[in-house]
Write a structure and sequence with these properties.
Structural class: alpha/beta
Strand content: 5-15%
Bound molecules: nicotinamide-adenine-dinucleotide
Helix content: 40-55%
Radius of gyration: 21 Å
Order of helices and strands: EHEHEHEHEHEEHEHHHHHHH
Number of helices: 13
Distance between the termini: 22 Å
Strand order of the largest sheet: 3-2-1-4-5-6-7-8
Length: 300
């Protein structure tokens, strides 16, 4: 793939990591942030990540921090936005960006849950706009969901898929702009039932997590759910669903158990207790374990 000029808006947790992936793939990357300290930290964070991963540290030279939004995007072939999760902010940014880029510059948002359609509806050229949903940390989790809206053109999707694939990511084309895209719909279908099991006294939170980690969680990186259904047979899958589906939680709103945790300020790691109690040491151990695991899967 030809080298592109890429602009990243927002240099936080996701933005600096996205810039890192594109710079490592050989693209020229400009990056901006409204908070000078975040922008100042971006290149040192990228250099530290590259060192830690044993990647080519010189790639950081292809990342140009830029205090001014217009300077950041002026020559861009592709702009990806990773600012705070705030619809009016994202709409305002894209309106401003569109005034300063070429008519064929592709515009992408890395929103987690805001509909891409809502973010991009005010643009003059909506066919060049789409969503690209990365996962944290962007340089270790391969998936990028590439989200099409009713206006996105086929060449915009094709070019963006190729851009991410050539940068070593695993792009997945999401053909309709639905809440949660693909990954988070699947993930939160599981979380709904996980919470329901605890709420209904079938087991405690620790047991839910142990069951997942010690059973189908072991297979998930090499065996997707539909591969698994085919492996055991669609007839067996149907027989299981006939019995299990009526029993599985299907409430269309967040669990009252979850709502009570939040009302009681049991917010998880940040308050020391959520579904379970967490000491600072336990939190650090779990975070380290996750990073070590993701790094060990880098070459899969
Ligand atoms: N954290 C995750 O796991 C994750 C995963 C996927 C997608 N996302 C999405 O990515 C986006 C960024 O999330 P994050 O976790 O990196 O947040 P973050 O808070 O770490 O970074 C956001 C950055 O945007 C900057 N910013 C705010 N307004 C700005 C503006 N007008 N111009 C330029 N910069 C501005 C902030 O200063 C901050 O540095 C959000 O939309 C989020 O929902 C996050």
């Amino acid at each position: 793939m030809a080298k592109a000029r890429i602009s990243v808006i927002g240099a936080g947790l996701m933005g600096h990591g996205i810039a890192q992936v594109f710079a490592l793939a050989g693209h020229e990357v400009s990056i901006t942030d409204a908070v000078p300290q975040s922008l100042d930290a971006a290149t040192s964070r990228i250099a530290a990540n590259l060192r830690d991963l044993g990647e080519d540290e010189s790639a950081v030279a292809r990342v140009r921090p830029c205090a001014d939004l217009v300077d950041t995007v002026r020559d861009a072939d592709y702009v990806v936005e990773a600012v705070s999760e705030d619809l009016p902010l994202k709409q305002k940014l894209f309106a401003e960006i569109e005034r300063h880029v070429r008519s064929d510059t592709i515009l992408a948002s890395n929103t987690s849950v805001i509909p891409i359609t809502a973010i991009m509806q005010g643009l003059a050229k909506r066919e060049r706009a789409l969503g690209t949903h990365w996962w944290n940390p962007p340089f270790l989790v391969p998936l990028v969901e590439v989200i099409e809206t009713q206006w996105t053109s086929a060449p915009t999707i094709a070019w963006t898929m190729k851009l991410h694939e050539a940068a070593g990511k695993k792009p997945a084309h999401v053909k309709k702009d639905v809440p949660g895209f693909i990954g988070n719909r699947l993930q939160h279908a599981l979380w709904r039932e996980a919470i329901s099991l605890v709420e209904h006294g079938i087991c405690d939170a620790e047991t839910v997590d142990s069951v997942v980690k010690a059973s189908f969680g072991r297979r998930l990186t090499v065996l997707g759910p539909l591969e698994n259904a085919d492996m055991v047979g669609t007839d067996l899958t149907l027989a299981i669903h006939n019995i299990v589906m009526p029993a599985i939680d299907s409430r269309p709103e967040p669990s009252p158990y979850l709502q009570k945790l939040v009302a009681d300020k049991k917010l998880g790691f940040k308050s020391g207790e959520g579904f379970r109690k967490w000491s600072a040491e336990e939190q650090a151990t779990l975070r380290t374990k996750v990073m070590r695991h993701l790094k060990s899967m880098q070459d899969l």
